[in-house]
Structures are given as structure tokens and as C-alpha cells.
Write a structure and sequence with these properties.
alpha/beta; binds aspartic acid; single chain
């Protein structure tokens, strides 16, 4: 087997108990050479994530409110973890150094990054691995742009002689020497860029669910897990709201063709979901998953001979651009065109936009449907299979759901239907029942 890079998310490293589970996993697999860790996340529902507490310290300082109590919570959390784990990495001194830096006016990125830094120190000691600071390998420009080639080179240079290491996720260093973090959830990105640089055979992403499910378990009872899915299919599903992984983590793994395996730290026996470059088409299972979102507005334009009118789409897109609105979908017919917009983008501008459309597009009719939901049924196997859309629409008709809009991407990898918000759950259940048998 080749090298594995394993990233453990916040809930997988939230306390000593979870870190012991991590140790069992890593000790049990000699191929795991590099371990990337998040800051301690929630131990129970109403608990606080260390990263949130660190941001809170900074906000308090900015508002000139004492932050010491919050810092103490962080202090106690790490010192008791160190004691519980039976290691000595001088965590109290590390925390004092951080406190002193905060007093001196440390930047928000520095403060936020310390959650990962301290956790990686502890976990490296528990595993007996080297600690490699992310600031020595992950690079950003002075303006804060992630530098992938420079990072790739420095990872190779630094890790070349290190057999096994723990690396904190989420941050790196700017060329001027200051700390810079990725956006929230960014340890996923660190894991992916390390996996790419070392040419890992697989990037394991350990979290608290056994991968992706074929549908939202709050809507469908006990949905099946997705065993394997391609990056492209996943992108469609995450766009519609299914999320486990930071979006930017996909790119580095994808260009290096490294599969990402989502695993559950609390159920290591589960295989999880394998995300791969090429879809694996299962003849028994044409769809990979169903996801959707509520809260769309659809503006439908009807104009006779619309298809032969030059520049119509440009004018329509121009109106949206002028109003700072992104178009989610643009389903078209011979004489019709609908614009699907996320309602949140409209910000009370709907009447104004409709007026501009009336004036500039001169449609025969224009209608607005609010409170629409979009549901994407995704599956690379759909293109080759006859009758997929027939079963999908039969399922919806049988469930009494009125389909208001249909859009099928040119890849034929997904079928998107628009239904009224009130039919959202019924529609997802009906599609799931029919298409996963
Ligand atoms: N600790 C950071 C966050 O909470 C990064 C991460 O966990 O991936 O966003």
C-alpha cells in the first residue's frame, strides 16, 4: 500500500477519549504517515468549539471587554487533555506564550490558529510522531492568497525526511512571516494539499458520520450510505446543501487524482464514502444521491419567437448583474425562459427587477413564482440508463407533487426539479423510494 494522509475533524479530536480512538485508528494502519488535525470541536450538543472560543477572545479584546475568563476555559480544556492523555508537551507554557501574544495585540488569524497548533502538539506526543508546524509548509502571499506550488515544494522538502508526522490544519504562513488561516473548516484543505504533495494513495477524512448518505436523514428514514461517488457528482450534491467536506478540499485531491475516503472515528469499522475522479457506475444503483434546497424565486418570461431574438439572454443576464444577483438556473423552452434565483439574493428588489425586465425584454407575459424548492437527483449512471427520468416523474406524480420546473445538466448527471416549498419533503421521499430500490 502507498502513503495515507488522515485528517481528523473537530469532533474526532474534541477530548482525550476521542484522541484515544484516533490513536487506535492510526496505530492500526501503518500506511498512515501524516495526520492532520483540527482544533477540539464540540464534545456534546451545547459545547463550544475551541476555534469559536478563540475568535471570541479576539472579539472581546476589540470591544475592550475582559477576555480572561474565555481564555481560561481554553486553558483548562487543554491542560486537562494533556493530563488525561498522560503526555507532557508543556501545554501550560504554550498557553502562556499565546496569552502573552494576545496581550501584545496578536492578529485574529494567529489567535484562531492556536486551536490546531496546540492540538497537534498533544496528538503528536500521543502517537509518538514528529510535530511539523503548518507555518513551515503552508504558504500564502502577502495579500493572503494561497500559494499552491510554493506550498507543494515546501511540503516535499520538509516531509521528505520525516517518516511520520502530525500537522495542524487550518493555517499557514504569509511571506511576511505572519499567520494566515483558511476559511472555517479549512483543516480539510490542509489535509488535501498534503495528500497531493506526498502523492498519497488515499486521503482519509475522519469525522463523526460514516460518509455521505443518499438523502437527508431528517427527511428520509434511514437512508442508504453512499459507498462511492465522483467529485463531480459530489459537487452537484454539495451545491444543493449536502455537506461534510470543505469545498476547497476537493481541488487538490482531484488534480492529483487522489481518492478521498470519508470515515467515522466513532465507527472505524464502517467503510465510509469513497470520493473518486471517475464515477463507478453500478448497474443496480443508477442514482448516487438526492439533495435539495428551499427558498427560490422563479421569474418566467414568455415571448413569442424568443428563441430567434438575438441578445435576449445577454439582456436578461445584464439585468441580473446590474442588481448584483447570481442566476442559479436558466431553464428554457422555445418561447420561454425562466430565471431561478435564490430568494435571499433578492433583498426586496423583486418588484424593481420585474419592472426592468418588462421594460428591457418586452415579454408577452412575465410571471413570478415564489417559495420554490429545487431538488437535484444525481447519478453518473443516469445518462446511460433509459427510463430514469420516467421513473422520477412517475414517483412525483404518484405522490401528488406538481413539478413546476425541470432542468437537466448537459452532462446528464443530474435532473433538477422545481417544486413548491410545501412539497419539498414529500418529493424527496418519493424520489428516494422509487429510485433506490
Ligand atoms: N478549527 C477550524 C474551524 O473550526 C478549522 C477546522 O476545524 O477545519 O473552522
Amino acid at each position: 500500500m502507498g502513503i495515507k494522509v488522515a485528517k481528523f475533524g473537530g469532533s474526532s479530536v474534541a477530548d482525550a477519549l476521542q484522541i484515544r480512538k484516533l490513536k487506535n485508528i492510526v496505530d492500526g494502519d501503518q500506511d498512515i504517515k501524516y495526520v492532520v488535525v483540527s482544533a477540539p470541536g464540540k464534545r456534546f450538543k451545547d459545547d463550544s468549539k475551541v476555534t469559536d472560543l478563540l475568535y471570541l477572545c479576539k472579539t472581546h479584546i476589540e470591544h475592550k471587554i475582559p477576555y480572561e475568563q474565555i481564555f481560561q476555559v481554553i486553558f483548562d480544556r487543554y491542560t486537562s487533555m494533556e493530563a488525561d492523555l498522560g503526555v507532557d508537551v508543556g501545554i501550560a507554557e504554550e498557553l502562556e506564550t499565546i496569552r502573552a501574544e494576545i496581550e501584545k495585540g496578536a492578529s485574529v488569524d494567529y489567535i484562531a490558529s492556536r486551536g490546531e497548533y496546540l492540538n497537534a502538539k498533544l496528538i503528536a506526543a500521543v502517537l509518538g510522531f514528529a510535530f511539523i508546524d503548518a507555518k513551515n509548509i503552508v504558504r500564502f502571499s502577502d495579500k493572503g492568497k494561497f500559494l499552491d506550488d510554493v506550498t507543494n515544494d515546501s511540503i516535499n522538502r520538509v516531509l521528505k525526511d520525516v517518516d511520520k508526522a502530525v500537522i495542524p490544519g487550518f493555517y499557514g504562513e504569509k511571506l511576511d512571516g505572519s499567520i494566515k488561516t483558511f476559511s472555517r473548516g479549512g483543516s480539510d484543505i490542509t489535509g488535501a494539499i498534503i495528500a497531493r504533495a506526498v502523492g498519497a494513495e488515499v486521503y482519509e477524512n475522519w469525522t463523526d458520520v460514516s460518509g455521505f448518505l443518499m438523502a437527508d436523514p431528517r427527511i428520509v428514514d434511514d437512508p442508504k450510505p453512499i459507498e462511492s461517488i465522483s467529485y463531480m457528482e459530489l459537487r452537484e450534491l454539495s451545491y444543493m446543501g449536502a455537506s461534510v467536506l470543505h469545498e476547497d478540499a476537493i481541488y487538490p485531491a482531484k488534480i492529483a487524482d487522489i481518492p478521498i475516503n470519508i470515515r467515522n472515528t466513532n465507527r472505524p469499522e464502517d467503510p465510509g464514502t469513497m470520493i473518486t475522479a471517475q464515477p463507478k457506475v453500478d448497474p443496480e444503483q443508477v442514482i448516487s444521491g438526492i439533495a435539495g434546497k428551499k427558498g427560490f424565486t422563479v421569474i418566467g418570461v414568455y415571448k413569442s419567437h424568443l428563441a430567434s431574438e438575438k441578445g435576449f439572454i445577454r439582456k436578461l443576464a445584464g439585468i441580473m448583474e446590474d442588481n448584483d444577483i447570481t442566476i442559479e438556473h436558466l431553464p428554457t423552452g422555445i418561447d420561454t425562459m425562466s430565471v431561478v434565483i435564490d430568494k435571499k439574493m433578492l433583498n426586496g428588489k423583486l418588484d424593481e427587477i420585474v419592472e426592468q425586465m418588462q421594460n428591457q425584454l418586452k415579454p408577452d407575459t412575465l410571471d413570478v413564482v415564489e417559495d420554490m424548492a429545487l431538488i437535484a437527483t444525481v447519478g453518473a449512471g443516469m445518462a446511460a440508463r433509459k427510463g430514469t427520468s420516467a421513473s422520477l416523474f412517475t414517483a412525483l406524480a404518484d405522490a401528488g407533487v406538481n413539478v413546476r420546473m425541470i432542468d437537466q445538466g448537459s452532462s446528464e448527471m443530474n435532473i433538477i426539479v422545481g417544486v413548491e416549498d410545501k412539497d419539498f419533503e414529500t418529493a424527496i421521499k418519493a424520489i428516494y423510494e422509487k429510485m433506490t430500490k
